[in-house]
Amino acid sequence: MKTALILAFVALSASTNAGPGEKLPTSASPDIRVAQAQLKTLVSHAAYIVKERIAYTNAVLCLQKKTARSPASWAPGAKSRYDDWVATHIDQTLQIHYTGNFLGWHRYFIWEYEQALRNECGYKGTQPYLNWGLSAASGMEASPVWDGSKTSMSGNGAFINQSGLDVVLGGNGLPEIYLPTGTGGGCITSGPFVNMTVNLGPAALTLPGNITEVNPNGPLSYNPRCLKRDLTDELNQRFANFSAIIDNILAPKTVYNFQMQMQGIPGSGNIGVHGGGHYSMGGDPGRDVFVSPGDPAFYLHHGMIDLVWTAWQMLDPENRIYGKNAIAGTNTFLNQPPSENTTLNTGISIGWAGRGINVTMRDVMSTVGGPFCYVYA
Ligand SMILES: *[C@@H]1O[C@H](CO)[C@@H](O)[C@H](O)[C@H]1NC(C)=O
Ligand SMILES: *[C@@H]1O[C@H](CO)[C@@H](O)[C@H](O)[C@H]1NC(C)=O
Ligand SMILES: *[C@@H]1O[C@H](CO)[C@@H](O)[C@H](O)[C@H]1NC(C)=O
Ligand SMILES: *[C@@H]1O[C@H](CO)[C@@H](O)[C@H](O)[C@H]1NC(C)=O
Ligand SMILES: *[C@@H]1O[C@H](CO)[C@@H](O)[C@H](O)[C@H]1NC(C)=O
Ligand SMILES: *[C@@H]1O[C@H](CO)[C@@H](O)[C@H](O)[C@H]1NC(C)=O
Ligand SMILES: [Cu+2]
């Protein structure tokens, strides 16, 4: 079977692939003729990167032009094939976060998304991931993911003065966490998704000033609006820097501790790399736990979540893939309401987003098992 390599969107400079099969030089050759060939390789690498990125965002735009499969009787707001993913995530949010299936469900979700880009939109490349550590170091707006260029994922939202307003998470029995606002806040202004319409939600959109916005007609109803972002370096740097990433891979010795550190232990004040990645994008639907896949950057963010999980699993594959540290938790958000433990036999359905097949947790535990055959590069 062909191995689908998942390449980094921002980590590409560290990749050893110039194009398919080509090795990138790592230091200048003193031999003038070899150095000439090195230059050629580097130039073709640059062209390859630009083409790959645009091919990816074009495939996403293609998915946004195709008709939804979700029945209008269930999700009248789902207009495009892309919306099928958003609707499924909205529908299942309280059964797929702070649960035993969190990691496996999202691995399957982004993998099926990649399959749709390939099978329905002719994409030939790999699913990129967003390396939060790099954008924490460079500043988000300087990152090729967020710089707003035509090879980016579109950039920041238009500036709105949110001075003095925090985003307040928690409540409803959970301690409040105050998060700073970012440097945008409004509609995105450039890049491939500048004309995109967000159709679904909000379901629980946290706005600056301790306000939560909910669509009174229900999150699956039609509510067309622009894509907003509020890039927040402070959150990227505080919760999803390289040390935070490595600590999440090396410190937790049980899967329970691993996934809790990643999502943020309630009451700790830390939102983890998962929360750090999400909230540093900000905006609508980025700050809405239910509707967040409505921002195309979601799939790059969760690619990085999957990379971190994979790295953690491979430090002890015997116990962390199918063994005693494979799965912990139940099938409801922090076990509210109480539900059964997630096991290798627990089913995963992604509804109308997928291809009508259901898998089990066992099928999604290894990146080279079940339906998968990929590695990270
Ligand atoms: C934002 O508004 C505050 C007052 O609410 C004002 O002090 C501040 O100068 C404004 N900032 C910008 C960048 O306009
Ligand atoms: C967005 O729409 C405007 C106005 O129709 C058009 O000029 C522009 O090319 C579009 N941009 C993209 C990236 O689709
Ligand atoms: C935020 O809003 C919630 C719900 O309205 C309220 O209980 C809480 O006290 C508010 N917190 C702050 C800091 O205003
Ligand atoms: C990196 O992240 C960790 C964990 O969130 C945090 O404690 C630390 O202060 C961060 N480091 C920097 C330099 O921001
Ligand atoms: C569910 O998991 C918990 C924690 O590992 C364990 O204590 C409990 O016995 C399990 N329940 C069942 C029904 O297997
Ligand atoms: C997949 O799972 C869903 C939800 O559990 C269920 O409604 C559906 O019938 C299942 N589909 C198949 C083909 O088993
Ligand atoms: Cu999710």
Automatic annotation (TrEMBL):
Gene3D superfamilies: Di-copper center containing domain from catechol oxidase (1.10.1280.10)
Record keyword Signal present: yes
The keyword Metal-binding is assigned to this record: yes
Signal sequence, renumbered to the chain: 1-18
Keywords tagged on the record: Metal-binding, Signal
Gene Ontology molecular function: metal ion binding; oxidoreductase activity
PANTHER family the UniProt entry points to: TYROSINASE, TYROSINASE FAMILY MEMBER
Protein name: Tyrosinase copper-binding domain-containing protein
Organism, scientific name: Aureobasidium subglaciale (strain EXF-2481) (Aureobasidium pullulans var. subglaciale)
